[in-house]
Specification:
The chain is α/β, with parallel strands linked by helices. The protein folds into 3 domains: about 30 residues, no CATH class; about 220 residues, 3-Layer(aba) Sandwich (Aspartate Aminotransferase, domain 2), CATH 3.40.640.10; about 120 residues, Aspartate Aminotransferase, domain 1 (Alpha-Beta Complex). The protein is built from 10 helices and 17 strands. The protein has a 7-stranded mixed β-sheet with strand order 5-13-12-11-8-6-7, with helices on both faces. A 3-stranded antiparallel β-sheet has the order 1-2-3, with no helix packed on it. A hairpin with a 4-residue loop joins strand 2 and strand 3. The longest helix has about 35 residues. The N and C termini lie far apart (about 65 Å). The structure holds pyridoxal-5'-phosphate. Pyridoxal-5'-phosphate (PLP) binds next to helix 3.
Length: about 400
């Protein structure tokens, strides 16, 4: 297939293929999926190249040994990039693991919590709740706070941490509900307790003191690449203190010893993460954070200004990554979904436990994509009112 020209769809780069009259669009859609989610265009292009020829080896990244010097270099550099971007101290180790965020729900307590010990958990959403249920298999769980009674639409402010907690577990961003902890929420906890964070949906989205966490984990498929990789950053001093025997694949210490190569890693997914981390470094976390804030503000402002849409969550807890909203008249939601789809906007259906809409506006989503959604919100509203006025006029004329 010969790619002959570049054009734009909804302001985004696409390629036109003249051979078979089809459009091959790298990004013909505006992708608001919650994960796997949008990747930077240059990452997609580099990954495509590597599928054809990885690092000039004449082999595809999909068929090269993870023990080859070319891939070992990628793994080393990817871990070094996380270290550099997070400005980690020497006590922290960086791991690239399998198993997604969900596997960390059991790996964390298995490695950190004895049966007779207590860990405190923030219950701020479905994922947090999942982590709680898995921790109960290994030790005692104290619920430090919960917003379950309001379908997790806020971050609780009254926190009670068990004084003898082995660690405190938080979900920094609640992907399904669109709430996010504030950076200032962490130090009051980390000053007194070992802090563990599920950062699956907001890692590298803002500047943060990453050394205040004893353990961070994040599934890759939102801000750091493709599904299949889970980044773990752990303070090695907290390991090796539980009595139980741990299966090899679930033991952080072994993964550290084997430099994330205890078994065959997800080679391609690690490579995509490596490319994404390079992109983050090039952009700079500060600049990414500023852009994320601008994107979120534009979208929340449009929702707040509209008489058709409602923001779902407490304003002070709004997520900068996942913007959740509903329509005041639910019967219009199907129409809005069709209207946005026709504009190439995909992935904005709300999670089934919340309904409505969710626009995930991760690091790689360009600001122009948010502009398209904001424009759709505004135009849909004026169309809706134009229709109402049309019917009012019709009714008035029928009385003349
Ligand atoms: C905050 C959070 N934690 C955990 C998970 C689960 O990740 P995975 O599907 O990779 O196991 C998700 C998935 O979306 C998530 O958003």
């Amino acid at each position: 297939m010969r790619v002959v020209s570049v054009f734009m769809v909804n302001g985004l780069n696409c390629f036109e293929n003249n051979n078979c009259d089809v459009y091959v669009c790298l990004m013909s859609k505006i992708n608001f999926y919650a994960g796997p989610a949008i990747l930077p265009q240059e990452v997609l292009q580099q990954a495509q190249e590597a599928v054809k020829d990885f690092a000039g080896t004449g082999l595809s990244i999909l068929e090269i040994s993870h023990r080859s010097k070319e891939f070992v270099k990628i793994m080393d550099e990817a871990r070094a990039l996380v270290r550099e971007l997070m400005q980690l101290n020497d006590e922290r180790e960086v791991l690239f693991l399998h198993g997604g965020g969900l596997s960390q729900f059991h790996m964390v307590p298995m490695n950190l919590l004895n049966e007779n010990e207590t860990a405190s958990y923030f219950d701020t959403g479905t994922w947090a709740h999942g982590a709680i249920e898995e921790a109960k298999l290994f030790g005692k769980v104290h619920i430090a706070c919960s917003s379950k009674e309001k379908n997790y639409n806020y971050i609780p402010k009254d926190i009670s941490i068990a004084p003898d907690s082995k660690y405190v577990h938080v979900t920094s961003n609640n992907t399904i509900y669109g709430t996010q902890l504030n950076p200032s929420d962490y130090s009051p906890i980390s000053t007194y307790h070992s802090l563990v964070a599920d950062m699956s949906s907001d890692i590298f989205s803002r500047e943060l003191d990453y050394n205040q966490f004893d353990l961070i984990y994040a599934a890759g498929q939102k801000n750091v690449g493709a599904a299949g990789v889970t980044i773990v950053v752990v303070n090695k001093n907290i390991l090796g203190k539980v009595d139980r025997k741990i299966p090899r694949m679930l033991d952080y210490r072994l993964h550290i010893e084997k430099e994330s190569m205890l078994n065959t890693p997800s080679v391609f997914a690690v490579y995509v993460s490596y490319l994404t981390l390079q992109w983050i470094k090039k952009e700079g976390i500060k600049a990414i954070e500023e852009r994320n804030n601008r994107k979120a503000k534009k979208l929340y402002d449009a929702i707040d200004a509209s008489s058709l849409f409602n923001g779902n969550v407490a304003k002070e807890d709004r997520s900068v990554m996942n913007v959740c909203f509903t329509m005041k008249d639910q019967s219009l939601e199907k129409k809005f979904a069709e209207y946005t789809l026709a504009k190439g906007i995909v992935g904005i259906d709300g999670h089934r436990s919340v309904g409505g809409f969710r626009a995930s506006i991760y690091n790689a989503l360009p600001e122009s994509a948010v502009d398209v959604l904001v424009d759709a919100i505004k135009k849909f509203e004026s169309k809706a009112y134009a229709t109402i006025f049309f019917f009012i006029n019709c009714i008035s004329y029928s009385f003349l």
